[in-house]
Amino acid sequence: MDDSSDFNDLPWLTPERARLYAVTAALAFFGTMAGLLAALNGGFDQSGLPFGMDYASFWAASRLVWAGNGADVYVQALHKLAQLPIVPAAEYEAFYYPPPYLLLCVPLAALPFFASLAAFMGVTGLAYATALRQAVRSPFVILAALAFAPVMLNLIAGQNAMITAAIIGTGLTLMDRRPRLAGLILGLMVIKPHLALAVPVALVLSGRWTVLVCAGLSAAALMGISTVVFGFEVWPGFLHAAETGRQTLEHGLVPFSRFQSAFAVARSLGAGIGLAYGVHALSVAAALAALVWVRVRRVAPAVERSVIVLAGLLLTPFVLDYDYVVLAFPLVWLLTAWSEQGFPAGGKRMLLVQYLLPIGLFVYAPAHVGWLGAVGFLAWLTRGIGWRHG
Hints:
By secondary structure, the protein is mainly α. The chain has 19 helices and no strands.
C-alpha cells in the first residue's frame, strides 16, 4: 500500500467480510425479486399493469416489424394499438429509439409477452455478466455487481440497461488491449447513442484513433443495415419520435424524479426550461473538464475508464434511474485496481457508498440520488486520487 492509503478507512471491511456481504446482497436481491414476482397475478400487479411494462414498447415494435412496415413503429397510434394485448388502453409506452435498435427488436414478438420479457432479460443479463467477467475475475465481485440496485430497477421496468452497460463496459475494458474489437463493440451504442456521448470525446482526446474509426464503422454498418431492412422512411419517423421524447423530458410527461440529470433536478425544483438547460450546461462543462483532466494527468487506466462512464452520465439530460446499471463498471474497475495497488484515502468508503446509494432510488426517487452520487463520485476522483494512483 502506498502513502496515500488510509489504514483507518473501514478497517472492518476485510476481503473475507466483503465476500460474505456480496453473497448476502445477492440473496437479498434474488429474495426481493422472488417476492415481487410471487405477488403478481398472471404477470400483472393489482393495478392491472404488467410486470416490466416498459418492455411493451419493444415487444410492440417487434409486432409492427413482423406486420411488414418498420416505419409504423414511429406512428404513435399504431404503436399503441400493438401494445393493447398487454397494456391497458389508458397507458402507453413510447418508442424513441433509432432504427438500429429495431434490429434488436425483430425477434421479440416470436414469444408471448412474458416469455419474451424473460428471454430478453436472460440474454441481456448474460451479456452484462459476461462484460463483468471481462473486467474482473472474482466471482464475488461479479455477484455483487449482479445484485446492484439499478439492475433491479431495470428488471422491474423491463428495460435495456444491462445490454447498454455491457456494451460500454466491455468496450472500455478492451480499448487498450484489443482496440479494433473494442471499437466495433462501442459502435453498437448507436442503439442508444445519448448514453455514450463521452466515449468519442475521450477517444479523440486520448488519440485512440483505431478505436474511434472502428466504432464509427460499426455504427455506420448498423445504420446502413437498418435502412436496408426497414426502409429509409424509418429515419423521418425516428426524428419525429426524438422530438416527442424531448417534449416528454422538458414538460415532465415522465416524472422528473425518474430522470437523473442536472436538467431534471432543476425542473423538479421549479426552474423553467431555459434555466434548466443552463444548469445542465454546467453539468456538461464539468463532465468535459473531467475528460480533459484525464488526459492532462495521465491517470491510471481504471480511473480513466471510470471518469468516461461518469462523464457520460452527466452529459445527457435524458438518463433514467435504470440506466445507472453502467455505474457498476467504475466500481468493479477501481476495486480491482486498488485491491492490487492499495486503496487511496477514503477509497473503500467511496466505493461502498456508491454501491449502496442507488438503493435510495427505491426509497425516495425525487432526491435524485443517482445524479448526486455520480457528481460526487466524479468530483472525488478528479480531486487528485486518480493521478496519485497512476
